[in-house]
Amino acid sequence: MEPLSINILVSLAVILIQGSPQARLSVLPAVGKCVRLGTFGSGPAAEPTQVGEFWKCGRCEIEAPLPIGYPAPTPPGAIELKSYPSVRRAEISSTGSTAMGMFASFWPLFNHIKSREIAMTSPVEMDYRGMMEPNSNQLNEKNGSWTMSFLYRESDMGPTGKDGTITVVDTTPITVLSVGLKGAYGLKKTNEGLKLLNEWIATHPAWRAVGDPRAFSYNGPAVRNGDKWSEVQLPIELKSDVRSSNGSKSTSD
């Protein structure tokens, strides 16, 4: 048999066993799971490895546990589809400078979890509501508001409600498109990630963003900027015509 014919047969076998790339993209990950969709730049330098409650990926490390049920962190250089469970979190919302806001909000949030004897987790989450510039898909601090959150490890740790300037809430489960990044935290890094996410969506028209972006910061100030690990995420869904033709599915592993 000609080599080309052999290659075609091998490709068909892979599609039959694994499903076509288009079919695999229509399958949502189960809650707490993720699916690798692609890479950018030189791709991940390493794959995330869990060591006890912590994570390591090349020179990047996460030295605080993730909330129970959270999917593995996305390595810098990768784009993934991820499904998150509900999580209990303590949050502060405001407007204006996100850098100053993170600095000012850290200690009230830290004192809140300390007063409830709740251990620090990772990541610190930043939600950006109404901050997107419509013509550039980039965040602008002149628009909207932001929310900074510390996450509870488990959802039964303490009550929800107000605690001074802090609000404790249970979030809604969510599916996101996520990009792993490395480098100094801030709005510039978040916009870098947003550009990559929107480029992916533009080349995969079956999908659309359905909410405001958020950023995960996995490290504290003691970690050098070059080794800081983060993610930028957009809530995402299959368009209704694609869902109706494929049916709603999710992976179980």
Summary?
This protein is an alpha+beta fold.
Helix/strand layout:
Layout: H1 3-18, H2 21-25, E1 34-39, E2 49-51, E3 54-57, E4 60-62, E5 78-84, E6 88-94, H3 98-115, E7 124-129, E8 145-151, E9 161-163, E10 166-170, E11 174-182, H4 187-202, E12 207-209, E13 214-217, E14 229-238, H5 240-246
The portion of residues assigned to helices is 10-25%
Beta-strand content estimate: 25-35%
Number of domains: 2
Q: Structural class, from secondary structure content?
A: alpha+beta
The description of the largest β-sheet is: 11 strands, antiparallel
> What is the straight-line distance between the termini?
38 Å
Q: What is the total tally of β strands?
A: 14
Order of helices and strands: HHEEEEEEHEEEEEHEEEH
The Rg value, from CA coordinates, equals: 20 Å
Shape: globular
User: Kindly state the mean pLDDT as a whole number?
Assistant: 88
Describe this protein's structure.
- With 253 residues, the protein is an alpha+beta fold.
- It folds into two domains: 28-86 and 173-246, no CATH class; 88-170.
- It is 25% helix and 30% strand.
- The protein is built from five helices and 14 strands.
- It has helices at residues 3-18, 21-25, 98-115, 187-202, 240-246; strands spanning 34-39, 49-51, 54-57, 60-62, 78-84, 88-94, 124-129, 145-151, 161-163, 166-170, 174-182, 207-209, 214-217, 229-238.
- Strands 1, 5, 6, 7, 8, 9, 10, 11, 12, 13 and 14 form an eleven-stranded antiparallel beta sheet that branches.
- The chain starts with a helix and ends in a 7-residue tail after the last helix.
- The model is unreliable at 1-23 (pLDDT under 50).
